[in-house]
Design a protein that fits this description.
With 371 residues, the chain is mainly beta. The protein is built from no helices and 33 strands. A hairpin with a 7-residue loop joins strand 19 and strand 20.
Amino acid sequence: MTNVLKRSTQLKAPSKLPQVLAIVPVSTHVGDIQTNSATNRVYYVQGDNQVGILSGVTNRVIRNVKVGEGATYLAVNTRTNRIYVTNFRDRTVSVIDGTSNRVIASVSVGLRPYGIAVHQGSNRIYVANLGGTISVIDGSSNRILQTMNVGGSPALVSVNERTNHIYVTNVGKNSLHIINGKTLQVSKTIKVGRNPIIVPGINSTSNRIYIANNLSRFASLVLGNAPGKSIPIQLGSLQSEVAVNPLTNRVYFTSAQEEGRGKLFVLDGETNRILETLQIPAFTSILVNPLTNHYFIGDSDGRNLLAYNGQSNKLLTTLRTGESAGNMALNTRTNRVYVGNAGTITVVQDYPITNNGARTRPLLAKHVYLG
């Protein structure tokens, strides 16, 4: 489902700070985690071949679904209520029906399927196979529409829903493949930094694509309207994640997989200038909530979740989660953040910006895709 926002000069301060609502026990360590905001359900990889389903209403586990071997990444199509899981060792993608909570298809893809993303408008699913190919699945028939042989190791995928362009990082070639979603062909391959083993960040409003480079001290910017050479953004540190707030045009790069304290770089998406550099824990995850202009930093070595004000970049509060605050997902309808832990999921209620203490609903505008 597409939820969108527009700027408002009338919005003031949040009425409440984010708070932990529940810490829900699950079977084992939580890997990738995604939400279906339309059905208010949470999907998460656990163990080697299971996907758990959590109710966003009751905060209870509904079911554990067995999928293929080496379950890795998830993608959700909120329009069709289908959930897709890459199975690294099986060379398959499992398709889960969100109504019956059962696997309805197992689609054979390429060698070592890894990253996955959905273009909801066309109901097509894009799979990066580390063995050197990119597979496109028709969501209606669960059949392969196209296989692109690109070589190297295609790793992670992002989709611009508005432009129907798909961006796939290739860690074997230190490059970014741009796929035209209409022709299902690679329209351009652009060199970026070393080891871009991170999901690309997309600002669908400005049509800019941000690549975090795990082994380079610069990030890479690709202009979606005129994709020529990538533009280096000098950070002076290796990167571990990238997140974008399309409403405020702020870009967040973490450098948090090195020795000692990590860093968070806050960039102006218009000028590419670093606005703020914050110290963060050594190993972290990040999630941006455009609905509140908050961002969350999870301490993967501990149990702290740090919530920041996106306007001032000041720490709002420190929340206590389950052990090891890992991957996070946002439900854009309920404004809840789900944090995967080692054996639990922490449910955090975030609160929207308000006027005079009254809660408001997000305003709608075109071309700001939030999932």
